[in-house]
Amino acid sequence: MNEPSSLPGDPCELHLRIVYDDELWDTPQADTLERWSVSVLHRRRSHDAVPDASAGGDCAAADCPSCTTDATVGSMTFYRVHLDRGRNAYWAMEEESEELYETAQALLDPETGSFTSEASERLDYVGSALLVMDRVTLDSAWRGYGLAAVLGSEVIHRLMAGCRAVACSPGVSDLSSQALRDRAEWDRVNAKIVRGWESLGFRLYRDNVYLLSPASQDLEEQRSNLRRHLAELGASWRAQTS
Description:
Number of strands: 7
Low-confidence stretches: 49-57
Distance between the termini: 21 Å
Number of helices: 7
Mean pLDDT: 87
Strand content: 15-25%
Strand order of the largest sheet: 1-2-3-4-5-7-6
Largest sheet: 7 strands, mixed
């Protein structure tokens, strides 16, 4: 893992903005798929660089709006797939994207749109929907510190209510890096990404589709561990940059 001092800012100032845009389409597709967009934001305070900001009268508190800005440093996309309403979820996912279709092929019955019997045997019955972690991206300066798993676990906890399973297909989503043109480096980065999501409790099911049960006790324990990791990372960054 990289040295905390190499981070571009205090990781404890990262926060999430989770948005669901309902376009009010009166269609079975809209009833089946919910697309959630997540912005990863880093809060920056300009008054930290001013010796006595309060003396100027512009800054009354540490989090005053005039001195605080949010910079976008990453994004995530999640889908809540309702298997019991709207159209057949298998074909709704096929129509939405190739990545969702691959998940549907691994988990759902094309005839019914429900979980296959094989997938059902792996899952506790704690809900009826499927939560798909479709894409997670961080700016390059924030990678290599385990932050994707920290942030992803928080979004999963916000969105998993009523879901029987959480699914993802780990892999490189940013193809712009020249370093990843080397096959060995590509494999190394992919393996590291997989380990990050396995730390949350995701386990390989089939064809690079990983499953996590919302009922898993490991999930709550790992969330606590990841929050502790974030706090320690922030403390190290502040100690090394002060």
